[in-house]
Amino acid sequence: MPRLPDPDFGRFGHGVSLLSGWLPTTIQIVTIVAVVVALGWRSRRWRLLWVPVAVVIGVAVAFATRGWMNSQGLASNPAPPQLWIWTGASAAAISVAALGWTSASWRRRIVSLLAIPLTLLSTLVVLNQWVGYYPSVQRAWGDLTSGPLPDQINESDLAQLRNTHPTTGKVLVVDTPDTVSGFKHRSEYVYLPPAWFAGSAPPQLPAVMMIGGEFGNPSNWIRTGNAVATIDDFARAHGGVAPVFVFPDSSGSFNNDTECVNGVRGNAADHLTKEVRPYVVSKFGASADASKWAVVGWSAGGTCAMNLAVMHPDLFATFVDIGGDRGPNSGDKQQTIDRLYAGNAAMWAAFDTRTVMSKHGPYIGIAGLFNDSQEPPDDKTKNLPDHPQERLAPVGFGGHGDEDQFREKGALPDLCAAAVAVNISCTLRVYVGYHTWQFAAQAFIDSLPWLAERLGS
Q1: Which residues pair with residue 124 across a beta bridge?
Q2: Which segments show compositional bias classed as Basic and acidic residues (predicted)?
Q3: pLDDT tens digits for 12-61?
Q4: Which helix (H) or strand (E) holds 440?
């Protein structure tokens, strides 16, 4: 099992790191100093009454935020304690500024106001370290300012690029329909490889749907997962040939976790299968053959990838599940039924991965690649082999029946076993590392040759 690359170096961390190193540490040190100065010694009444009140408010907000996140099933693995500490500190900083305004000097008032954005920034830093969302300042700035994506062009540029043999693929912003699903989505993206521009008309290339995780947007695979650079490298090594890639919106907003099902959070499944896929076929000439279509997903998107394939083998014959769960979920079974399907248990059964496979019976020509991560067992990682372990049958690590606390632990071996039982070809790769975007990016690099071979590209 390989250890994942250090996010401070190489292709995942161009620029100043937001995941480790001097910048996150400096931000938190400066914040602590600002909070201490904002508090000050002041009067006895301030120390014995108002400071404890601010602390209580901070603790209450931290617990309330944690409870809300758990109630909505918005995270598959538990957040680090530092996230709740800084969340509480942010609320406390606001309280200190408000409660101590009249008793503070103008200098202390300024510091009190400054402590508020600093504590909020420290909270975001910890959140980012938890999920690996932005590896560097430059990546975050590009996303926040909506800077151009790698290889991005306008649709009006397509005609003049015909038969010009570009050295890289091109990325387009597309507006897929929502007339069937009614799913209100954000801008979506399509990557066209260099081979798409060869000849007088586009060739009929295979296609891959790329789905990100919770708390994100359709550009995450491109900006954070470095997918375009990865595909460009692959195409360059294969004479410009690669599949067409589509980066759809499976959630509709940053914190709307649809799990790619049809439900109260939106008809995401219908959008992906009845609108996005047909649009790529009709607009860009991609093959309509199921054997030429694959779905790749990370975290909640990994769950989506397998689920779309087993529910629609007539549309997708290949999937890559990177760190997904056992099935679409928003907590335990009853919580999922309530949160995703408004209490409709039949809808849960219609979209539950293992239930769907069991009802379908043996599949023909379907294959899945599972990429799982294990947290490094301290210093024992130094003696691990250099390549991912690949297995055609499941391995028995990780917990079973512990979806409530760590829903992805042991999920992929379980799914691999269930897939083999219904004649789905299964390969499982296990990495030493954490459930972050850096893991997803490396897993995609390693999965792309297998994916291309499956699709015949």
Answers
A1: none
A2: 377-390
A3: 445 788 888 899 999 999 999 999 999 988 899 999 999 999 999 999 99
A4: helix 437-455
Q: Please tell me the number of Cα atoms within 13 Å of 105 on its side-chain side.
A: 7
The neighbouring-strand residues paired with 209 are: 246, 295
> pTM above the 0.85 mark?
no
The CATH number of domain 149-455 is 3.40.50.1820 = yes
> For residue 357, how many C-alpha atoms fall within 13 Å in the half-sphere facing its CB?
23
Q: Are strands 207-211 and 293-298 parallel, antiparallel or unpaired?
A: parallel
Phi, psi of 199 (to 5 degrees): 85, 180
Query: φ, ψ for residue 298 (rounded to 5)?
Result: -120, 130
Query: What average pLDDT values come out for the chain (457 residues) when binned by 10 residues?
Result: 43 68 93 94 91 95 87 67 94 94 91 96 90 76 75 92 92 95 96 94 96 88 93 97 97 91 97 98 97 96 97 98 94 92 97 97 97 72 40 30 44 94 96 87 96 93
Burial class (CB in 10 A: 0-12, 13-18, 19+), 344: middle
Handedness of CA 377, 381, 383, 388 (dihedral sign): positive
User: Any long-range contacts for 249-255 (C-beta under 8 Å, 24+ apart)?
Assistant: 249/185, 249/186, 249/187, 249/188, 249/217, 249/218, 250/211, 250/212, 250/301, 250/304, 251/214, 251/216, 252/183, 252/184, 252/185, 252/186, 253/186, 254/215, 254/216, 254/217, 255/74, 255/214, 255/215
For residue 362, what are its two tokens?
A: 């043996």
Q: At what angle do helices 106-131 and 81-99 cross, to 10 degrees?
A: 160
Looking at residue 332, what DSSP letter applies? S
